[in-house]
Amino acid sequence: MFDFLKWIYLGKMRFSNMVTLKWVLFFVCGIVIYSSGANYSHAEEFEVIIPPKASEINSKFHFVPSDLQVKVLDQVIWKNNDSVIHTVTSGSFSSGPNDLFNSGPLEPGDTFSYQFVWEDTGVVTYFCTIHPWVNALITVIDPEGVPVGNVAESGSLEFAEKNVVRAKETADLALEFNEYDDVINSHRQAARHYTAAALEYDLLKDNQNSAKYYQEAALQFHYAAVQLENSGQILESTKHHYLAGIEYHNAALQYLELGDYQNYGKQFAESLLNKRMAKYGSDYVLSPKLQMNYSLDPHDVVCKADYELIFKSTNFQPACVKPSSVEKLIKRGWASGHDPQHMDMKS
């Protein structure tokens, strides 16, 4: 085709008149347009919503959907339906923006779009730089549905299992170190290996193992956050509590896919707890009422240190009180030391 056009350009093909030349060029351009358009014929558009109250740290939904799969040449359109400004920025809170795309400030009602190309294949994470707990991921595959490029190994059971082994080995090292920096780095590296394994299992559609290793990653980030706080590195501690909250959030989404609503609620509660710890410190505990809002069983309610779990006599709702108050409240009939609706509770 290009040799043919070059011959025309160089004047090596002769035409009886300019009309004939015009029709030949029209015909050639039509073929070129048709051929190039064929690559886009199956491209699709996807919409991601930033819902109302997404900026709130305890919101159940941030980007909707938060885990999307698209093909090369597909376009994603983000719309800000929240009442505050957000950004859609590729990268992550832990590693920072990576310059793949950045919407800049999106006012309420604004939209931003990006078309994925071959160089983008793989797992693309993104977040809001203003509210870094607002995050999501997109898996970009080739037009035939086959992972390529950056995720050549993704979806590999062997790759997932290797990351689990590395994570366990690295986590075990944390028990052997005495220096804060060594312990923190071990927990951080273990968390990253667990996250890589969770992503692989997610691509393999193994939601159970994906949820399991997102939880393990969250625990490692949490341990790192506690160590950072103990060593006086408050800003870094805050960041790692957020990362733990993000991984618990990811675990919750996996349980949602499984229809396991009890664990879905538990993981969202853990996500919220770690995000609150980022603000209030590692000893922060959610109120019993808030824990119950996430469908936790009353048995699973956790009280702050030096507080004891009791149940109100009127509605059997859990409450956390000081040990010195337990006997008084029971004598007054306000509380019971166990929940009579659950026979396995000890009185």
Order of helices and strands: HHEEEEEEEEHHHHHHEEHE
Please give the share of residues in helix. Answer: 40-55%
- What is the count of β-strands? 11
Q: In what range is the share of β-strand residues?
A: 15-25%
If helices are DSSP runs of H or I spanning 4 or more residues, what is the number of helices? 9
Alpha carbon gap, first and last residue: 86 Å
Shape: globular
**Structural classification:** alpha+beta
Q: What count of structural domains?
A: 4
Average pLDDT confidence is 77
Widest sheet, order of strands: 2-8-7-4-5
User: What is the rounded Rg?
Assistant: 27 Å
Low-confidence stretches: 1-41, 146-154, 343-347
Main beta sheet: strand number and arrangement? Answer: 5 strands, mixed
Would you spell out the secondary-structure blueprint of this structure?
Elements (H helix, E strand, L loop, with lengths): L1 H8 L8 H21 L6 E6 L16 E5 L3 E6 L8 E4 L3 E7 L8 E5 L6 E6 L7 E7 L15 H18 L5 H24 L3 H24 L3 H25 L2 H20 L7 H6 L14 E5 L5 E4 L1 H9 L3 E2 L11
Parallel strand pairs: 1-3, 2-8
Antiparallel strand pairs: 3-6, 4-5, 4-7, 7-8, 9-10, 9-11
Helix pairs in contact: 3-4, 4-5, 5-6, 6-7
What features would you describe in this structure?
The protein is an alpha+beta fold and 347 residues long. The chain folds into 4 domains: 2-38; 45-150, Cupredoxins -  blue copper proteins (Immunoglobulin-like, Sandwich), CATH 2.60.40; 157-283; 298-336, no CATH class. Helices cover 45% and strands 16% of the residues. The strands form 3 sheets. A 5-stranded mixed sheet has the order 2-8-7-4-5, with no helix packed on it. The protein has a 3-stranded mixed sheet with strand order 1-3-6, with no helix packed on it. A hairpin with a 7-residue loop joins strand 7 and strand 8. It starts with a helix and ends in an 11-residue tail after the last strand.
